[in-house]
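An example makes the point: we print one protein in full, the chain in one-letter code, the fold tokenised, without further comment:
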Amino acid sequence: MVPELVITVFGSSRPEAGDPAYEEARALGQALARSGLAVCSGGYSGVMEAVSRGAKEAGGRTYGVTTDFFSRPVNAWIDVELRKRTWEERLFSLVQKGDGFVACRGGTGTLLELALVWEMQNKAMISRKPLVVLGEFWRPVLDRIRGVEPEGSAGTAESRVAGVVAGNLVHCSRTAEEAARFLTERLRRGTE
């Protein structure tokens, strides 16, 4: 039996159905499920709901990592809720559950999640796994970091080659379909 591959998706809790960010995440969930990948999210509203909804619409499996810290219910498209006591346990469980990661448009929480995965891989605290930012939202942040940590510093090789960080730490995908293709290719090859 082939082991289940799970993509953890980070993003804002604010978008609602019909908003561009919601629909982009919904398309991502559909593309991931059609590629045979399960989806893990924070389990609540916004991008988390949208990616889970999209995955379920395409016949995929969904996980939601929730916490006692928030009193909100899990969204209706979650198959398996993984409830954690603290916010910090939830954060690290989201990272541990993922075989790959996508950061969608979001605020400080999403920035924290993106930075955590990026830094944990940069410092070899976790094994290399594909990390994607969806759309152009995070590109200015990536460019700023590359300006501070030039190629070769801290062992990162952060130079951009065709939208991909040369060290393969962060890949920029313009569309949900491109993100799903990239993740599927990397995971099926067993690289990263």
